[in-house]
Specification:
The structure is a homotetramer of 346-residue chains. Helices cover 38% and strands 28% of the residues of chain A. With 346 residues, the first copy, chain A, is an alpha/beta fold. In chain A, strands 8-9-10-7-11-12-13-16 form an eight-stranded mixed β-sheet. β16 of chain A pairs antiparallel with β16 of chain D, so a sheet runs across the interface. Chains A, B, C, D: One of its GO terms (molecular function) is nucleotide binding.
Chain lengths: 346, 346, 346, 346
């Protein structure tokens, strides 16, 4: 029975609370939240758990085996570091940290102490993502030439992260999980409508070694919610539409065969358009799988799939995208100033 | 009765043939096509029209009032120039020319000669585009903060243009038509899967003076066809899905109100989610309107909406996007080489 | 604080448990379930409620003000009668009883005792149903000429009711709620695939006084789930698709105007096809509203909308449909026998 | 080269005109239409065809090999009889005749004379219908337990037929084509909104020998067009949605296995929910196939699939449905009168 403390019972923390408390191999030993009214409610519903205002109480409690950190991103590093230093296994919500420097430090500590450091990339435990992975791994789709994601909706604006850090980790975790390589180059553009320095729309293009291009269209400003990933392969193509209740994943037996043409300068493609198949997608709730995987990783029964190194790679790519995005925003601002100056001078 | 010659009876030329021949104010006086079997068929179906192998016959024919040019892009300039020099009005398929230099020269000639020079941007005569324009012009949507277009399908690869020149003119014409300004800055990325030098996927970001950002996702490699434009306004938002037969245009009474917050560092948005309305979209075939507009422009009854200056602006923006795209492709190639060298050196 | 006992914690009972226990004006005083393991779980989660194996304990408990009956249909009558006789208010799951005779008896007792007798037709508290009612009541749709419902899915087969008694109450409650009249005539056909005597597909046609026809297509055998009601009005038409997450209710500004034609034998209709509007549908969970309405009805603060008379009318219509259905099944069986005899005789 | 005369150039006749004139083995020798302005236009476009006001001219013309009759239903019989008597092959639009008596007479004459008598049930040449047939014939779906069709839209009201005779032939032809048997029993209900005696909404239930039930929901009063057929099989189920451009046919690997249960009174079904496959549906225009099949049937190269016997069976089932529908309408009218009398008497 692993004794776990949950730090933070916000939007996602509530889900962790439910799932942690129903895993038979886990004892929810402590819950931390800064809000008094939340703590009072927790005390009623979870009489056997210690309820704390401050995570330091968890750090000091020698009974706690593991900490699950679901607080704002800015506090991830200090909490996780304190937990690891106190000999506790740690799971952190995604994104792992606000910088790769912090993430690297956590990875080093966990390795030095021989502790489990996991990042909760729940998406990878989603049955549709597992299906996409199997389709790629089995060669069913052939060589993957593009990954195209549209992840747009109205809100929720978050005060401590921009749209890139909020939405891109989903796609980047799938890309890393599947293609096991960091991008060779990262391009970005976007716009800040609500807050000057914080993009609420971002377009990211990632180029990979093996002739694959990935594009993410991320927005907090769209009236229609879309959660759609298209994977183009040389043999088949697949689309996952997370809002399609009945047929979330579709596999298109369509493709392009390229004929190199010695007589002419250009290659001409042949199109093949075939059947569409929608496999049955079902399975347990992804977060249930995450928590069970955490338990087994701590017990050494499974190799942690989304360990610190994994979380670090995602943060590193986010940093590269953020840097490209800032560069683009500055150039655009500069162009606008120049345009203004030209107009003013005329 | 205006006497018109049609040059080129390819994919789009066939539609022009049908529409030109059924406009009661137009006499289809001549048809040009390089293919013998096409000319034989035309001779049977259009006994009253002259059928030529070469456009020079049209240039020399003093009876022809106007030329409609539906040949490959590379021939647009020379044909149009010859037509204008011979005193004929000219309509050219989009994109107008392969370079802005050529387009500028045609504009200058048409102005000098007092002839009508029109570019066939059929899209602008589509009832859904007119609806979108009305929604923006009337202020119904409020200030437009973004334009997001997805224009993807499988093929048709075209030998003389890449995906940018093939698909972007649709969006650029709507943007110009509506927002009456060229972009302040143009960013692009993409990929060449089938032919080394010719992108078949392109992502374009355009920034406009008035805090608007436009993004185009263009692809010849998608198994699912999508033709979708989203317009985000401060009051309402609109989406045109050209493949939605029943409700192509939807207006979302949803939006974001931004509260500047003196006490805090960040602005917090308020979301409003309301009804969705799908206005009835109907009207004559857009190309019929194009041809009638050409006729009236020639007769001086209407001011040409898609004149040479219009077509030139589109070409100029295409050139800027092409230049940004090439720059991106080179940088990526360079990054890949470096990555390879690093690996090789290790 | 009204003291309520819940009898039966099956599929729907679980929802009632959650909602009853979170209504601040209700004290969940007792819970009844025949299964030991269920009772053990309930004892843990609801330490302040009495947990009984048998509803008779509730009947005998003078502290209980009201009983909520969520047991199989066959037990509704005897439980409700005992409850009323013991002076308790009663809410019964739909369908109210297995026969109108039973339902009439309950209505008479509740009236005699001055107790609240309510039937849980949750559907009527659904915000989409309320929207439809408002559209009809306000005259927006004009005179309603038809009601067309498709309510099909794969299972769940229920041992104690057939597809008619399982699915039709939803539609019948909306029809009664809205049109406040019992049908003049009821026709039915159907089929028994799985069990000889128990239809799993049923087609019901109901004719109403005011030139309205209603048709229900009910099935437990469809691979695709559909929950769709269309309402045809003389001015506008409305469709509620319960599975359309984004736009569940659509109002079509389309209609038919009938021109009586003295010169000709037939009337010719004029079609009008206009915009489609999808109003925002939102509101509290319907069952929460049901339970609050029960509480207020018991306290005399509201007139019970789905009282015993209401439930009785639904049962009466179900009986008429059942009778028509049995008649149709017998005639078909007879036709088949005759066909067989003819073939055998030949 | 078969010399064909087309009688009637209305809505469907225009399509026949286009297809007949482009079949290389057919010479469109004559065209008949009662309207002067139509004949004038035809004379221009089809200079090599004789243009007649009256079909009697065709009957008298010994050069004509075959007549294609696309006139109103009421004239089908007399025209076809005259054609057959004059030794001409005949193809009639569906429904074949207004009564089975007429249809039987035509069948007898065609057999006596050894002439081809074909009914244009174009639907059966639709690639989606052929796919459904193959799925049934190959046993892929298993035993078919139900056929459920929804064929609703707004108009077109037709003066000489009601909604049953207009829309049901599509479904009945598929049912006959596929299941090769007439129904054992036919039930019907409906409503007459626009014209007293002519139903514009009809619900038809057909029972077949082999435990299959078919249901048709036919309407001219629906704001939303639907063209959807569901086929339930013991192994798999299939749905054809004619308005789904991308995936018209879907095959659901879902089903119900019935376990007979000796210990209990009822059978319990097991549900299986699997993948969905949408085969590629493509092929030539169905009407092109119809015309070519007519030509080959006349030449004796193919056995006519939709011959007079086929058309007769469809008419016979329409008559049975019409009779059931009239019976239902009378009973409802009677119930309403009685209700009125009861109310009046009170």
């Amino acid at each position: 029975m692993i004794k776990v403390a949950l730090c933070g019972v916000g939007y996602w923390g509530r889900n962790l609370l439910r799932v942690l408390s129903s895993n038979p191999g886990i004892q929810l030993a402590a819950i931390v939240d800064t809000r008094l009214e939340v703590r009072e409610r927790l005390a009623q519903s979870f009489p056997s758990a210690a309820i704390y205002e401050d995570a330091s109480s968890v750090i000091l409690d020698p009974n706690i085996d593991a900490m699950v950190i679901a607080t704002p991103v800015s506090s991830h590093y200090s909490l996780a570091k304190a937990g690891l230093d106190a000999g506790k296994h740690v799971m952190i919500e995604k994104p792992m940290c606000g910088s790769s420097e912090e993430a690297e430090d956590l990875v080093a500590r966990a390795k030095a102490y021989g502790l489990t450091l996991m990042v909760d990339h729940t998406f990878l435990f989603h049955p549709a993502v597992r299906k996409l992975r199997d389709l790629v791994a089995s060669g069913t789709l052939g060589h993957i030439s593009y990954f195209d994601s549209q992840r747009v909706n109205l809100g929720l604006f978050q005060p401590d992260v921009n749209v890139l850090w909020d939405l891109a980790p989903h796609d980047l975790s799938i890309l890393d999980y599947r293609f096991a390589a960091e991008p060779v180059s990262v391009e970005a553009s976007g716009y800040c409508h609500v807050n000057d320095k914080s993009p609420d729309i971002a377009y990211i293009t990632l180029h990979y070694e093996n002739s694959m291009v990935a594009h993410l269209n991320l927005s907090w400003m769209s009236p229609v919610k879309m959660r759609r990933i298209a994977l183009g392969g040389s043999k088949q193509m697949a689309v996952w539409d997370d809002l399609n209740r009945d047929e979330p994943v579709k596999i298109y037996d369509s493709g392009i065969t390229i004929h190199s043409n010695q007589d002419r300068e250009i290659n001409l493609p042949n199109y093949r358009i075939g059947a569409v198949t929608s496999p049955r997608i079902s399975g347990p709730e992804p977060l249930t799988e995450v928590v069970e995987h955490l338990r087994r990783s701590i017990l050494g029964q499974e190799r942690c799939q989304t360990d610190g190194d994994f979380g670090l790679r995602i943060v590193r790519t986010l940093e590269r995208a953020q840097s490209a995005l800032e560069c683009s925003l500055q150039q655009v601002a500069c162009s606008k100033r120049n345009t203004f100056n030209i107009i003013a001078a005329e």
